[in-house]
Structures are given as C-alpha cells and as structure tokens.
What does this fold into?
Amino acid sequence: MFEYEALQLYWWFLVSLLGGLLVFMMFVQGGQTLLYGLGKSEEERDLIINALGRKWEIGFSTLVMFGGAIFAAFPLFYAVSFGGAYFVWMAILFCFIIQAVSYEYRKKPNNLFGERFYERLLFINGSLGIFLIGVALGTLYTGGNFEVNDMHLSHWTLPSYGLEALLNPFNLLFGVVLVLLARIQGMLYFLNNLDNQAIRWRILSRLKREFILFLPLFVLFLLMLMLQDGYGYDEAGIVRVVPLKMLQNLLAFPWLLGLLAGGVLLFLFGIYRALVAQSTQAIWWTGSATVVMVTILLLLLGINHTVLYPSLSDLQSSLTIANSSGSHYTLTVMSMVSLLVPLVLGYIVAVWRAMDRFKLTVDEVNADPHHY
Amino acid sequence: MEFSDALVDWSRAQFALTALYHWIFVPLTLGLTFIVAIMESIYVRTGDAWWKKTTQFWMGILAINFAIGLATGIIMEFEFGTNWSNYSWIVGDIFGAPLAIEGLMAFFMESTFFAVMFFGWNRVSKEMHLFSTWLVAIGSNLSALWILVANGWMQHPVGMHFNPDTARNEMENFWEVIFNPNAVSKFLHTVSSGYVLASLFVMGISAWYLLKGREVLFAKRSMIVSASFGLITSLFMLTTGDESAYNVAQTQPMKLAAMEGLYHGEERAGIIAIGLLNNDKKFGDDQEPFHFKMEIPSALSFLGYHDLNAFVPGIEDMLYGNPDKGIMSIAQKMQRGKEALKALRAYKEAQKVGDTQKATEALKRFEANQAYMGYGYLKKPQEAIPSIPLSFYSFHIMVGLGTWFLILFMAVLYWARRDQIASKRWLLWAMVGTIPLGYVAQEAGWIVAEVGRQPWAIQDLLPVGMATSNVASTSVMITFWLFAILFTGLLIAEIKIMLTQIKMGPEGGH
It folds into this structure.
C-alpha cells in the first residue's frame, strides 16, 4: 500500500518521537536525583517521592516501548546494538530494574535494606541510568565497534562490549547534558505539581544555577554534533565519512532547522517563564521543546542518506534505516497498529489532567492509604 | 558461526533465571487485578465502605507484587537483543511485532491507570476509579496475550516464509500469527492459571486470619470471592490445558513424548498417573524406562489426538525414524538440514560473483530442504531430545497440583456455604500450605513449556545453539550472577514486606 522507503522513514520518525517522549519523561529521574537537594525533611522528601510516584511508570513504559518499537521496526539495529554493546545496555537495564521497586518498598516496614538504600537506588537510576542512555544515544552519531556478515549476523569487535563508548567525549557530553536536562525538567515538574513554599524557593535558586551550567554544555553539544564528521551512504549503499553531515542534513531540510531553532527558543522561553515570571506552567514549554528537539536530532539519522548506526570496525557494516528494517509487510502491519498512538497519547493526557487538577500537598500524602 | 557450549549454556541459564523470577510475580498480578476489580465493583454497587477497605488492602498487596513484576519484566523485553541477537535478526521480523504491540496496547494502559487506581481515590470520581481498576486488570491480561502470542509462535511458527536474500524469516500473515492455535490455548491456559494462583493466594491468607481468629468477616468474605473465582477458573484451566496438550501433540510430538517419558510409540497410549523414571535408561537399549508406573490406559492417545486408538510416536520413533508410521529419523533430518544450509551458502556466494544460473540452482536445492534447516545446525541427533526427567516431572507435578487445587476450591465452597469453614482447622491449614504449591505449579508449567521444546528457540527452525548473541561467555556469566544476586535480594525484601503487610492486616495493625 505504502512504499517501503516511506514506511521505513515513518517508523524511524515514530522511534524518534518515542525518544523525544522518553527524554521528556526523564523529569522523573531528574527529580529523583534532587530528593535531598530539595527535600530537607522527611515530610518534604515523601512529598517529592509521591509527586514522582504518580508518573514514573509512564516513563518506564516509554523506555520499554522504545525498545519494542526498535525490535519490531528495525530488528537488525536491535540485534546489533543490544547484542553487541552488551555491557552498556545491561548497565542501563540494571539502573531501571532498581527503580520500580524503590518507590514501592522505600517506606514499607520491614523492607530489608532500609529507606536510605532505596533512595540511593533512585539516585543511581536518575543519574547513572540517564547518563548511560545519553552515552548509548551518542553512539548513534559516533559509531560502535561491530561487524555484520552476509547472513546479517553480527558481533562486537572489542572485548569491552560497548563500554569503550565512555572514552568518546561526545558520548560523555551527551550523557551529561541529558542528566542536567532531566534535573531541570524535574524541578519544573515540581513547580507544577507541588504545593509547598519551601521546596518552591529552593527550586528557584537551584534552577538558575543548574541552568547556567547546562546552557554552555548544551551549546557545545549542538556545535559538536553539527561540526563533527558524520556518515552517509550513496545509491549503491556504499558508506562514507561525510564532514558536517548533521549540519548538511539540517540545511537540506530548512524546516527541520526551523523547528529545531524553534525548540531551542521555546525551551529558553520556558526557563524564562519559570525564573522571571515564576510560572508553574513552564514544564509545558520546556517539555514540548524537549520532545521537538530530541525528535529532530534523532530524525536526522534517518533522512538524507544518513547512517543510523555507523560501524567503526567495518564501515560497510554500518546500519541505515534501509538495511536494518523489518520487511515491507511487517512495517505495513505495524503502521496500522500505530494508528493507536493518538488514542494512547490521548488517554495519558486525559488521565494526567484529571489526576493533576489540584497540587499535591503534605496533608494529602499523609492521608492517602497508599502513599509511597 | 558456531558458539561455544559455555556461551549457549550461560545464555540459557540467564534467560531461564530471569524468566522464572519474572514468572513468580506475573500470575498473581494477572489474577489479583481481577479480584480487586470484583471487590471494588461490589463496593461501588453497594456503597459499603467495608468493601472499599477490603479492596484497598488487597490493592496494597498487589502493588508490592506489581513493582517487582515490572522490575523483573523490563529485562525480558531487552534480553532478546542483548543475549539472543541472532534470534532477533532471524525471526525479529515476526517476533518483534507482538512485543511492540504489547507495549503500545498494554503497558501504557497498565501504567497510566495504575496511578489512578492507587492515588486517585480522592482525585477522580468513584466510577472513574472503578473503570481504572478494571483497565489495569484488562491491561495486564492484554500484556499476557501479546507475550504469549509471541511465545506460541516460537512453539509453532506460522504465517511467515524464509527470505534467502536477507537470510531471515519474514512475516507473511499477521492473522495467522495472532490466531495461531498454540498461542490461543497457551494464552487461555496461562492466564487462567494466574487466576487460580491469585485465588489460592487470597484464600490462603484469609485462612491464616481465621486460624489466628482475626479479621473474621474480612477473611470469610475474601475467601468466598476467591474460592468462587478459583473454582470457575480452575475448570477453565483444565479445559485449556487439554487444548494445549492437543496442540503440543500436533506440533511438538517430541515434547509430548518427553512429558510422558514415552520411549516407544504405541497405539492406545496411556498417561502415567504416578511413575519413577529409570535414570540409567539409554536410547535404543532394552531397559524399562520406569522403575514403576501407574497408567491410565489410552489417555494419552485421547489427550493428544482426541481418539482413544491413536498412535502416539515415542522418542525413539522420532530419533531413529519409523518408516511404517512415516516418521523420518533425526539423522536424516539433519542431513537434509545441512543440505539446506550448504545450498544457502552457495546461493550467497553465487550472488556475490553475479552468477545467476548457479544462484537459481542453489536456491532450488535450498527450497527442497528448507523445512529441515534448523536440524542442520545440530551436531548430533540426541541434541534434538529435551531433558526427559525435567519435562516428565514438571508436567506431572503441574497436573497433580492442578487437580488438588480444584478439589480444594470445591471443599472450601462446600464448607463456606454451610458457614463451618472457621471450625475446619485442617482445611484452613491446607489452604495456607497450598499457597507455595501454587507457585510450584506455575514454575513447573513454565518448565514443561520451555524445557520441553529444547533444543529449539523456534520449533524445528532455530536451535538455541544458533540463536545467542556472539559475546564472550564470561560476560554473560557476570550478568547472570548480577541478576541472581539482585533478584534474590529483591525477592527476599518483597516477601518480608508482604508478610509484614499481611500481619498488619486490613486495619493497618490497629
């Protein structure tokens, strides 16, 4: 019904959008790292945990969905990256396994390890987990050490199985920027969700400091992304190193450049609203900006004959959306299924609004039989 | 590409470990979500605040279980990639779809409405809250549907063809994949077993309260809800179990033979009610396979083929071949499988040099032998046989316990109707003691399904030895132990927390 190439692009767009939503939902993780920075008493920390506790599962599901969508639509990418960069993905998974139980078990009597232990796990999930996802995403631009044979079976060529990505400055910067972004988003979420003056004042002073740290790193990240060598392929599928590839892609699609610039401005506007106008709605500005920016940065890997996952060991093993995707039939079926996406987004938004009609207070947390 | 045995073993061990751990928590969630939804429905209909408190208590227990279910579940989604990367390429075009659909249709529903169910008592209307509770139940069961569609497909691959150019299987018919008879019976059998487990769980805890003389009304009412739910779902589980066995006979005869320790095929084959396997028995020797056995005559023929006189092939019929019954030996299948693999390689080489004639010839040879391709990866015929003791004992433990559960539910309802349940202390103890047996039956069922189909990751198509990721076995060993330590620690914490909550009871210990 639809052209194969169109479906591949559509699915890469969906994966990119999921990536954008995933990064947006990282405000939960960012918030987890601020537990002691913003919560000075037990009561305040409970409030923070309960504010995040109503949302963390959506982020968790988004991460799982991100993996599932890649498996279904780009199985070779899934096989090569997860099966090759083994230690990085395993480390990420461990960081997320510990999140689920920590909310639920932290305050429960007789929880074996004690409250502080589960709080540390939440900190690890929020910092190391997000940092490593940043590093892993960075490798989409900087490459990985894998080879794919003519039967499309793959292996990693370094015994560090993905940990070598930590030696690349761009990957590291990606990780750091993501952690800082998550913390900023976390603070803006608390402004929106909590009714607590003390935490509010702490956020406003901390937000300024962290934003001043974030901004130059984010600019450096964008500059490196645009100016470093990228990877492209020609009609015959031959892969080459292409200088300034990402910048070229943006210039080839000026509307993407416009959207990206718009995203950056929207983000700055959100921060301005929070800091100067003390708005509680800033998360919506910065949040939509985050979704737009991340979606576009990921989308750049799937357009204009760009390599999706470059191989540093054997350039011609590199993966593209064309050579790593599911079959035409599967992509068609999955595209039908994707018509459910607006419905799912719709009920998430509706439930979010219904549950957040009024702000969370210490009193409500204490009265709730199920509080975390 | 050939993998070391150590790599394959560690990869299998890790998958088994993570799946068995995950499966400790899933069945309770599948059933308890429905039980709390039923209880909350009673609350909304009657407006009786007592039912609200009861619902909230069981929801609290559910939440403790749900969290660790999620924790052990996330790894399952990614482990196909991290540890079974060849698998992910060779069948990902079909297998990835149900997993992604599971995420989209089920996980978001569960996670979104879970928050309403737990934190929404004062934030949304009563009706909206009840609706959310039902959606959590439906969502978790939908998630089971899709993952079992995926698993059913591994047991009986349908709706696809092998594409020699990409060297993978590609989906051809989505409906065949969904309505695969193995997937349907597997889903129904698995979820009903979850309902039974949750019923046993609620019933056992209620019995404990009665033994302690506490929460008497709460315990009696919870017991009646759960025993009724358990009885209905047990009967359903029995029917779907029969259907599952029928499907196994049709599509995985080796698994059926291993489940029954059937070495020599026979007509009017019986089912062993009780038996002790002879561990010295070797294939082809004339030792008896059992030290002793009690058999129900013709039952296996009936179970497998719905015909009392049907021939059920034994392990040796399949291993050595049985021309009278038209069964090819494993060695022959391996021969043809190796032909297929050789032809595929020749096809690739011919294509590389642009020799179309050679390529066409090779493709013809490949197609003639393609059905046996998976056997081409085996090193010796015995590899095609799963562990007989594991398959046999887990199958019989599962069936035996399932029968016991049914009897127990009937007994509980009988005395509960006469309002004599609180005085039947032996029965109350039996209910408490049956909680762990419910878990044993669950894990045994999983072992029958998964060990029984060895060596196949995909039945007849892809053995586990060809399906792993090409990483160092020590890497997998490291993550295996990390999982073992982490999951065990979390399990102990979970049990301690849960027991404490149960001790505190619905009144919160006051």
The CA atoms of residues 71 and 409 of chain B lie 32 Å apart.
